Amino acid sequence: MARMGARISSTSLTAPLTRTARTSSAWISRWSHGAHRNQVALNIMAKQRACFSTAITTYHANHSSTASNGTQQPSAGNPIDTVNKDEIAKFSAMSDEWWAPQGPFKMLHLMNPPRIRYIRNRLEASGAVSRSMGQNNDGRFPLQGLRILDVGCGGGLLTEALARLGAHVTGLDASIENIQMARIHAKKDPLLNGGAPGSLEYRHQTAEQLLEQGLEFDVVCSMEVIEHVENPAGFLKVLGQLLKPDGDLILSTISRTPFAYFVTIFCAEHLMRMVPVGTHHWSKFINPEELQAGVQDLAKCQVLNIQGIGFNPLSGQWELMKSRDGTTAGDTGLLTLLGPPVAESANYFLAAKKISSP
Amino acid sequence: MTCMRFQSTASPSTTKGTATAAAPEQYDVVIVGGGIAGSALACALASSKTAGTQKIALIEAFGLSNHINWAPRPDQYTNRVSSLTPKSVAFLKKIGVWSELDLSRVAACDMMHVWDGVSDASITFDATDVNGMQSSFLHHVFTGPTAGTNTISNEVQDPVKGDKESTPLAWMTENMHVQYGLQKQLVAHQARGIKLDIFEKTKVQGITANKGEHTEGSGPASGAVDVTDWPVVELDNGKRLQTRLLVGADGVNSPVRSFANIESLGWDYSQFGLVATLQVDPTTSTAPGQGKGIAWQRFLPTGPVAMLPLNNGYASLVWSTTPKIAHDLKKLSPRDFCALVNASFTATPAELEYLCKNIGPDGQALVDFQKEIEWRASVRDMEAPKSMVHGNSIADAKPPKVVNVQENTRAQFPLRLRNSASYVEDRVVLVGDAAHAVHPLAGQGLNQGLADVECLTRVIEQGLLSGSDIGNIHSLTPYSSERFLPNLAMLGTVDKLSKLYSTESAPVVWARSLGLTAVDNMGPIKTEIMRFAMGLEDPTPSNRA
């Protein structure tokens, strides 16, 4: 643990991280136990089920590599047996709703533009966009030439957008219903079917299976997935392994704060019914310092940016807030007035770059 | 004033019978309606680096290319004139249309004098009150410090004089003139290779969408692209256009709105607007600031009458009044008509009512209007001390005398208020009069339409930049949420003004006059009102990346 703390404090993000050494040990132990505790969750909705396969993946990953980083990794029992057929059936019903305009995933649809703004902004900052062919066209296909993996793609909301911007995107999901829905929907746009430089493929596979096939990606995204995963530590490790050297890792999740409980569970689920009740479990939310430590130590990536995002009820839009270095990724909404720590007290993004030489 | 609820009755034809027709051609954006809003949208999209990559179609039932040959004579002005706010002018500049215009046919309106026909209480808006203010308190409340109005202020300097200090309140020009600029730009965009197809003199025969009806190839295993949920527009030339996004810029009775099953709510005012091109004698105006463009508006119980400045001693009349009076005024001889227009700005409401009652069934004057008016004016002048009550200079000023009315420019149209229940539907969006119609007393209808177009263009650009399907309702929602409330606020404000001034009830007149005089004397509040009316008070960030 002492070694880990020392390494974390040498990151580029110095100021806000004084608590990191303490919390990093806390999150490892919490996740280790959480894996068992949360298997019995009954109210798990689509997005969570999408993550079960990654949990399975990480379960195997942990068993094969616990010794290597000296951290006690969770031994998660066998989560496969607990993913029962009822859950799959419930999920099949939900999969039709992914693209319904006023359906349960409306908030995710609204989140897509700021997600893309954030991803574009971070890939430009890290140099990935200029390494791609994107700079040679009229600006419509900035991600042209990049191979991107979207883990936990659901109905393909983010996946399609990335492909329209020119990337070769692989969408990965544990639910066959999700993948089928995503495949059907991708057929609805000529731009995704040879009408533009980007391409799109969906796989009903686990991240570990991709790893076994020797696949590597320029960019790995996993949006609002890790807070639903059974074993986040192992999950991060696999994501890191799927990245090429210097590849970009982009995650988003929710902080484990009372405020996050209030907005994402009390308001969004129970009060406003904007998302289905049971979508989120507060105990699985992950604080920025914890995620940062995990990305650093397990995914072997250097964290470059953490930035909050919030829903502005006045504009009806999600808006990016100030990141730790004071930038806003070009956003000008009301919420850009807010910076850390308030900005990171609920939903936030994290961008990291794989360390090329370990 | 009746309150009605309008529901679409037009039922679009179905494609079932024409199954043998050729496969429709695919577009990204199809705009139905080539009026100013529709043409401006085509122009804005075509001139945008991002949106200019899209395949666009513009459909208009009447001619469009004929506008390019518009050759106006300096002594003739068409009767449909718009007052363009600084915000609208900034937008027209941005899309390259303003530079196409003949600025000698654009009149700056530097001052606006509005008064109550019953009480003579008045308010004067002077452009110099607003200029120099970079942004206002209200603006900061709504937008925060990041999105200032600096960009707007820089863009809206006087296009004629290039003089930043004297930004007029508005610019007056003929709608035909704006169309001329738009069509010239559209042709230029086509010439430089923008994928823009213009179907003029072409009617839309039906709009269909096979929602829920899957053709072969919709299954997950099949490889065919499935765009069955894209609307198909059938034209009377046999062509069928299938589009990712269908834009209704097709006016108050929008067929696109009917297709999308969007309700239009509102009512008809029991008023007609009478427009005409007037010739005035500028030397007869007693207003200070000679050479300044002044708009005159007087609220009468039958509706407001407004005279808007044009160049070369011409002016444009918009007289909102009862259907009968509008009908009668149209038939009057030019001489009698001018006499009554002059009376509408000077005579008391009772006198005016008497005069209008004396128009014969064939438009003949039953009394000598000229003599009646002169006699009554002389009587009124004897009660001179009245003017001491409100002694500031322009409050007593008289508009210039109307000396002639241009032939064939008198026209009337019904006044109504409409707002669509929604501006967006999956793959459908409404702009301009298709989305909302407003009483013309504030001259805001066209400006609202252009603001719609500017916003929609930005939303489409942002949709493309974020990899969205621009026809998806989630991509379009920001347009709706940005435009619906401002349009509704404008509709409501103008409607309340119209109602407030349609009465002669003494307490109401007293209260409204007190309010008007008070506002006239409260600089900051007046400035806020002017900024709102000029489109400078835009509580939405327009410079988002």
Brief write-up:
Chain A contains 14 helices and 8 strands. Chain A has 358 residues and is an alpha/beta fold. In chain A, helix 10 (176-186) links the parallel strand 2 (168-172) and strand 3 (199-203).
Indicate the topology:
The complex is a heterodimer of chains A (358) and B (545).
Chain A: H1 2-9, H2 20-37, H3 46-50, H4 52-65, H5 79-82, H6 85-95, H7 106-126, H8 128-131, E1 147-151, H9 157-164, E2 168-172, H10 176-186, E3 199-203, H11 207-212, E4 217-223, H12 232-241, E5 243-254, H13 258-271, H14 288-297, E6 301-312, E7 317-323, E8 347-354
Parallel strand pairs in A: 1-2, 1-4, 2-3, 4-5
Antiparallel strand pairs in A: 5-8, 6-7, 6-8
Chain B: E1 4-6, E2 25-32, H1 36-47, E3 56-59, E4 81-84, H2 86-94, E5 107-109, E6 111-116, E7 122-126, H3 127-130, H4 137-143, H5 150-155, E8 170-174, H6 175-191, E9 196-199, E10 204-208, E11 232-235, E12 240-248, H7 255-259, E13 264-281, E14 294-300, E15 303-309, E16 314-321, H8 323-331, H9 334-346, H10 349-357, H11 369-382, E17 401-405, E18 411-420, E19 424-425, E20 428-430, E21 436-437, H12 445-465, H13 473-500, H14 506-521, H15 523-533
Parallel strand pairs in B: 2-3, 2-12, 3-9, 6-14, 12-20
Antiparallel strand pairs in B: 1-13, 4-8, 5-8, 6-7, 10-11, 11-12, 13-16, 13-17, 13-18, 14-15, 15-16, 18-21, 19-20
Helix pairs in contact in B: 1-6, 1-12, 9-11, 12-13
By CATH, the architecture of chain A is named 3-Layer(aba) Sandwich
Question: How many β-strands of chain A, per DSSP?
Answer: 8
Which term fits the overall shape of chain A? globular
**How much helix, percentage-wise, in residues of chain A?**
40-55%
CATH-defined superfamily of chain A: Vaccinia Virus protein VP39
- Give the beta-strand count of chain B: 21
Tally of DSSP helical segments of chain A: 14
Q: What is the CATH top level name of chain A?
A: Alpha Beta
N/C terminus separation of chain B: 45 Å
Name the helicity range of chain B.
25-40%
Count helical runs of chain B: 15
Q: Which residues of chain A form runs of ≥5 with pLDDT under 50?
A: 1-26, 32-88
